[in-house]
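SAMPLE LOG
Freezer: B-3
Tube label: C17
Construct: single chain, 296 aa
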Amino acid sequence: MQTVTKSLRTDRRGMKNFSGKVAVITGAGAGIGQALAVQLAERGSSLALADVNDTGLRATRAMVTAAGTVCSTHVVDVADRAAVEAFAADVFQEHGAVHLVVNNAGVAMINTAEQIAYADLEWIMNINFWGVVYGTKAFLPYLRKADEAHIVNVSSILGLVSAPLSSAYSASKFAVRGFTEALKFELAGSPINVSVVYPGGIKTSITKNSRIGEGGVAKSKQEINAEFDERAITTAEKAAAAIIRGIERNKRRILIGSDAKLADWIGRHFPGTYEKIMGLEKEVRRRAEERAASKP
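STRUCTURE (predicted):
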């Protein structure tokens, strides 16, 4: 029994020291990715930062290199498998090691399942899901060379429960959840730990850069952005700090924000009725009744 207990404790150890480690972050040009880069730099990590936005990447690089951090930047579209594989090879060649990979890049889509175009559905899945898959598989051979390593894949509160107008986004984030949890089990006993992150409302620009469906969405993009800004209760800096704590503690699931924790609790305890408890159908039903009443 003592041997088993010792083994379990060893398996739960997280990455306690980030100094001298090489951390890879996608979506590092803004938001959580940028905040993570700054906080890991403060802890002594070398950084390999990727984003499709070169302007944002340069801004993040300026933040971290001011303190002398070793940092490389890479303009990468995570939906492009060949580009991600080349990115991984470049990082290992330039830095000589990889210890931490945070697959953080993501986009949002707001539309009904009925109205969403196939092209938009493919767009969000290519970035949010396949980008995570590519980032994981491309870096795994290099992570296996390290004495200790960690993969962090970012899902969402909408990877715990779904909501109206989120069919495409939720599908991509539920897929990240399933992929990452299976990966964690498959890497048991290896030096590579795995976590999946579920952010609630984070004060970032994700909705400003989202695609809003025409016809299926009653509100304008400006109205949606204003509502999101009002409901987003956690800063990117707090989210980054929570992720780092989760890595240190080797947490399989990292819930960020009281909204994500509440959604997780409701979804687990009331999986068949959470939409009623959370009032998710109320507005949809109201609009349906208004349309029915307006018909001659």
